[in-house]
Amino acid sequence: MSRELDHRIRQEIKALLPVNARVQELFQSWQHLTNDRFTFSFIDYLNIPFIKEVYNRNLKTGKGDDELVADHQANMKMAEKFALVIFLLVVEDVYPDLLCRLKQASGLNPIAISITPDRWEEDGLMKPVISWQELGALYEEVSGLFIFSDHRHSATEVEQAGADLDFSF
Predict the structure, then answer these.
(1) What is the CB-side half-sphere exposure of residue 155 using CA atoms within 13 A?
(2) Contact (CB, 8 A) for 125 and 110
(3) Which of 93, 81, 101 is nearest to 141 (CA)?
(4) Which residues are bridge partners to 44 per DSSP?
(5) What string of DSSP letters covers 24-58?
(6) What would the 3-class secondary structure string for 51-79 be?
(7) Cα-Cα-Cα-Cα dihedral of 3, 5, 6, 9, to 10°?
(8) Helix (H), strand (E) at residue 17
(9) Measuring CA to CA, which of 12, 25, 57, 62 is 20 to 30 A from 162?
(10) Burial level of 45, CB count in 10 A (0-12/13-18/19+)?
């Protein structure tokens, strides 16, 4: 790998570091605040379409420099979307009544995710980097892996609260 290519790829990876830090903080806080609204059984990760897509993209051989960089960009974008989906699941577990507040924005900023609603506006969570439409399929894919307890708001309850997670704007 040339130095230039190495630098280009490192720049892409470096851009994801703040999101990674926020996700780690989110998980650490969530463990203390969870309402245990969902669980899961065995998850075969390679049967999850978005993971399979990333896996297949990364195994392709014979790529040129521009294609390698484009693949890293696509992977980083997918990681940002995944971080937002996890964030939405955390909010659904801990603060389901605040989903409507998030839905008022046209999208979300993955660098600003946190389990502290008082920080959302200041941190720029609702200054969209990723739109609701971009999250829709991935949200459905990931949330479908979990078994939701009776404590989860039904679709009717969430809709009545004005916070349905219908991503088709």
Answers:
(1) 2
(2) no
(3) 81
(4) none
(5) HHHHHHHHHH----EE-----GGGSHHHHHHHHHH
(6) HHHHHHHHHCCCCCHHHHHHHHHHHHHHH
(7) 160
(8) helix 3-33
(9) 25
(10) exposed
Q: What is the pLDDT of residues 99-123, one digit of tens each?
A: 999 989 999 999 999 999 999 999 9
Segment 7-38, tens digit of pLDDT: 988 988 898 899 999 999 999 999 999 988 88
Give the start-to-end residue ranges of the domains of the chain. 3-160
* Token output for 102: 């998030």
Residue type for 43, please?
A: I
Provide the b/e sequence for 113-142 (b: ≥16 CB within 10 Å). bbbeeeebeebebbeebbebebbbebbeeb
Distance CA 21, CA 104 (A): 26
**Residue where the block lists tokens 């659904």:** 92
| Largest separation between any pair of C-alpha atoms in the chain | 56
